[in-house]
Amino acid sequence: MTEHARFLGDGVDWWAEPPEWLPRLDDAVDAAGVEGLVLEGPARVPLTSCDTFPVFVCQRARYADLPDASFGRNGCVVAVDLLGHHVYAGPIAIADNVVAPELPEALLQPPSGSSRPLLGTSTQSVRVELRAQLDLPWAPTRYLVTALVCDRASNRIESVLDVGSYRDPAVDEFLATQRAALQTGTPWPEPARDGAAYPSYSRIAGLTPQTPEGLGIALAARGSVVAGAFRLPLVEREIVKARSSLVDGDLFPSVRLVSRPTAVVEIALVITSAAGPVPTLLRLSVPAFGLLDTTDDDTASVASGCFALDLAVMDEVDTKLGRLYVLAFADRSMAGPVTVRSS
Questions:
Q1: Which one of 150, 154, 232, 306 is separated from 171 by 20 to 30 angstroms, measured CA to CA?
Q2: Interval 213-226: pLDDT, tens
Q3: Are 125 and 60 contacting, i.e. CB atoms less than 8 angstroms apart?
């Protein structure tokens, strides 16, 4: 399957073994003078003829920056399911996959006593098999993919996983019904109790950022606390139904909410650090209150809300990692990075 790529032009066969054109990506990015991360990949993954989902990450960085920010040691990829609003994240390279090129030892350990910065840049590319790397469900959907190295993010590419040009209306209707039948999530993390300040789902003066005027997320940090405000489109299961247990309050007695939510919105925090390539993924279920809005074209309901978490007291976050870089993902929106210290 061949198609056009940003830096490679026409006729790219993403599934070629080996990808002999991969050095051309290094050359093209180098010639363009891009500094940072470039992500390339297929716009369509035909499920009937392919069993892998390859994307290609290219990093062009100064030698002096590579010991602390190399995709072989600090990189990860994030895929957002635009139809189901699930987020998946994982490292760029693992033992069973293509391993990112190693840096020369001289770059990692400059001569003792030398204070001169290392000059020049390095451009390297690697293939990442998203299906295996992120354990993606192998079913029709649409993904928005981003590569990260510490506090640096790539461009984003959108890929459709489908079964070809033939569409069975009955199958489409069945999948839509299945998505609509999924239960609304319970707010997580649970709101603070016993006088604790966090987690909070109310605005905090001087910390909570302003809610975006359009669709999106805003993110802020103070110390080890991360706060966000959002205005996001919803999928059906995120809307709290009148018969929901979140309304009745019977099945979730441990959830303390000041009022009944109208939606529970999935927002993922992806946390990276210079300490290693494995990202921390926090899948938040954020309650939203008040009337639901609609998108400009009336194709989806929209909820607004906010949240604040203290990462230093969360069991899911490794407090030994030191400086953390936090990004938020939901639907097509991405916010951050903001920098926090976990300890």
A1: 232
A2: 999 999 999 999 99
A3: no
